Amino acid sequence: MTKRPTIHDVASLAGVSKSLVALVFKQDSGVSEARRERVLAAAAELGYTPNAWASALRSNNTGFVGIIVADLHNPIFTEIADEARQTLAAKGVFSFVATASILDTPNGRVLDPAPIQHLLDLKPGSLLIVGGLPDLQPFSSLQASIPIVVALTSATTLPGAVSIRSDDRAAMAEITAHLSGLGHSTVAYIGPSGRTVMDDRRRAFEEAAADSGLRFVWVSTGGDTDEAAGRQAATEALALTVKPTAMVCFNDNIAFGAQDAVARLQPPRQVAVTGYDNTYIAGFERISLTTVDQDRSHIVRQACNLLTDAAAFEAARGSALLVAPTLVVRGSSVKLTN
Amino acid sequence: MTKRPTIHDVASLAGVSKSLVALVFKQDSGVSEARRERVLAAAAELGYTPNAWASALRSNNTGFVGIIVADLHNPIFTEIADEARQTLAAKGVFSFVATASILDTPNGRVLDPAPIQHLLDLKPGSLLIVGGLPDLQPFSSLQASIPIVVALTSATTLPGAVSIRSDDRAAMAEITAHLSGLGHSTVAYIGPSGRTVMDDRRRAFEEAAADSGLRFVWVSTGGDTDEAAGRQAATEALALTVKPTAMVCFNDNIAFGAQDAVARLQPPRQVAVTGYDNTYIAGFERISLTTVDQDRSHIVRQACNLLTDAAAFEAARGSALLVAPTLVVRGSSVKLTN
DNA sequence: TTGTATGCGTTATCAA
DNA sequence: TTGATAACGCATACAA
Fold it and tell me: Which of A58, A255, A321, B202 is least enclosed, having the fewest CB within 10 Å?
């Protein structure tokens, strides 16, 4: 194995001290042109690149952005993470994505501290958390020292963080208005409970549904947010004695499961389904899911700005930014027929 | 900010030397029960966890598995990465997922070396690469020193690595037999070219199609593998003078795009579509995509075994393991009607 | 402008 | 069995 060249190797090849090499790779000024070129040439010859983590160990600040994805299975999480990574890269800021790991224990779901801790050991200059985590405890001691932005959920237990999410009340008002306009009067809400977004969104639905004069029932998916849980809960909802003619789902994944449940109905029956997130799948012709667009790029832009501009973050610290959602109407929200 | 406790803090609280604390956290034996308990108690009180990267710096070996995901947009990549992470965690092995970043340059697509380099700086004990990368250069100097496993593609430029992928020839033979059994005789292949899996899979299709006596045409998606490229290429294919009655797609994402193109046909016309990967989306009732199942869990199990068992890896070094695929027949592969 | 010394949190080596 | 010391690759204060 060819060992990776270090600052030491470059220094000895260029015939200078290690400090000088460090200087060349840090600042623009403070080193003479002649030496700078010698160092750069030596570095190029050896193929040297700085070891960012060794430097982090020493300086306690690398300036990179740590990105934590709550769940790889939800496309909107990976899309946001990926877009953030690209946006930051365009600004010349490096980011590192880590995925959270949820452990199923007898006491319920717990956040595995290890992957998080490992990312934090890397000493990120700021942190972006995408999606809801069972537990924000590992970050509580950090919120004073680095900017933390939480996207797609609110960070109630992290008062020093900034959260950016779409306005659920506005979204649910649009959805219920849309459905009642289509003639629906009995609607089921299919979604989980337990964490902030989950409960907030459901309550937002319930208020909006009441305002629109809809009869509604909530069928829980437990703590799950995937299509399997959606399929199961929707199947239950469709078997209720007071049959809902529309199902409003917590997110797209659950809605896809609900669509499955509708497709399997015997005898066939048309039931409207709506989602939340506008993942790319919702736009497929065969899916055509009416859903709420969270304005991904706006969320990402805002998040990246806060993550890289300390003053902007301080000004926003502790606030919960709401982004205006848009209802994307597609074929899944069918008109009521009888 | 409360600083994270270090080995130093634990040592002074327990009234022992740092070396002893390190020993306690390293091995089971070699330290007296009395001291071990004192150290453990102190560590618990302070909430100490070792800083893995500082230890990597010194020991040159952390034992963790680095996982590189080629593309977050493809569900099978994230699913494999996630399942590998869980499988390794069950074995008590920590893994860290990094996502590759592809840069669009005038010279075509290039792998951004930075994220890769950063992961390698962490000194993984072994490496899992999920999906095809434009360039395996950054790993060439590494293949002698640590086990590298490449999943879902072959590593032609990395002779020291082990690749695990499904048998494209077997899969394509099944697909073409299935389609010709349904009465199809003119089939379009929708897929990219340029990298190994891309070209291999296409050639496998062409051979199988010829063997099955099918007429076929290839409509390229360029270098793209997403649904937008699939939609576009499939639209072209459907407009050909010799109209294909079936479209075999490189992967599920492209197939979803192809399904979109079919759905938009005016006047409506039934065209069979097949995919490759059996992502969870393919199983949705409204999608019902006939596709090739790569036997995810078998691939993951095999990969994780090689990544954690040095002897097993050495025995397999340089080989390309083929996993038997299964054709999952669903509603999208319609019978030929006229 | 350049070099020396020291420390980040850890492990490895060697004595005791 | 335990402790002192050096080193990993780098950054920073300070001296030259």
Answer: A58
